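Quick one, probably user error.
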């Protein structure tokens, strides 16, 4: 029964790792990848010597760090609330509605956001802001608003998936714990704090550690499609993935793009190992390995 999964991981995850050699080559398609000249760490220098290196690194870490915290908080809150819904039909409906944005293409999400933020016909400018007595805003040329817009879109898109995972863990908790606490006079908040969260903490930690490992990887669709590649707000929306993509489109240098992928993978690996070691020190049962 393990063979299909092992074959999948071998083909999809491990064989492509041989392509790491591209990151250290001066790729010449006339010679072929293996026969191309070695470039050493020259391809990695591109990420660190440009004037935008600090900006894209800062944006990547701060955005993904906030996404980890906010998505975890809202997903956990939604899962706890869903668990209190007694009607099975409505529980499934709410669960499906929360999960649906996770399944929608980033291109579609980009245009849904555009329908809200469009300067001339957007819902915000034509309905919400006039009700509040505020002037219209040119959202796609005002960078100060995007550190708030992107996290909101991320929560709407990603929290539903985590919510389903947490809800499955909560449903598996023995009901006798809650019955005993009710007899002892515990409130709902006390049950959540003393029973629900401690018992699903291993799942919370696993999902958090997995996200920490990808803190240098950004949701490309979120940072490229949602801002509609607007140059006026690049300082607040540009991350490593979008920066490398734009450089690849302009320069056509796949070696530099591969070097960025290797850099992200190594940093992610170090972060996962470090976070896991810290978790093991605190509570061995909550660690990944």
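Nope, works fine. Designed sequence:
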């Amino acid at each position: 029964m393990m063979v299909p999964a092992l074959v999948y991981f071998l083909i999809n995850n491990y064989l492509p790792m041989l392509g790491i050699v591209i990151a250290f080559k001066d790729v010449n398609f006339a010679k072929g990848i293996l026969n191309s000249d070695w470039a050493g760490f020259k391809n990695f220098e591109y990420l660190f010597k440009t004037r935008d290196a600090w900006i894209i690194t800062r944006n990547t870490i701060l955005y993904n760090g906030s996404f980890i915290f906010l998505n975890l908080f809202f997903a956990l809150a939604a899962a706890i609330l869903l668990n209190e819904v007694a009607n099975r039909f409505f529980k499934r409906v709410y669960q499906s509605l929360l999960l649906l944005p996770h399944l929608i293409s980033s291109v579609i999400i980009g245009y849904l956001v555009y329908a809200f933020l469009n300067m001339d016909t957007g819902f915000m400018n034509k309905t919400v802001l006039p009700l509040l007595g505020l002037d219209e805003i040119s959202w796609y040329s005002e960078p100060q608003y995007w550190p708030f817009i992107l996290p909101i879109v991320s929560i709407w898109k990603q929290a539903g998936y985590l919510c389903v995972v947490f809800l499955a863990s909560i449903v598996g908790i023995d009901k006798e714990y809650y019955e005993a606490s009710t007899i002892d006079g515990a409130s709902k908040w006390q049950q959540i704090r003393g029973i629900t969260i401690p018992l699903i903490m291993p799942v919370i930690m696993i999902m958090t550690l997995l996200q920490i490992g990808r803190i240098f990887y950004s949701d490309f669709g979120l940072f490229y499609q949602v801002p509609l590649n607007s140059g006026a707000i690049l300082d607040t929306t540009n991350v490593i993935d979008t920066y490398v993509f734009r450089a690849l489109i302009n320069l056509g240098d796949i070696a530099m793009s591969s070097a960025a992928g290797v850099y992200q993978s190594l940093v992610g690996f170090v972060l996962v190992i470090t976070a896991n070691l810290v978790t093991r020190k605190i509570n061995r049962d909550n660690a990944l390995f």
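Residues 167 and 197 are 11 Å apart (CA to CA).
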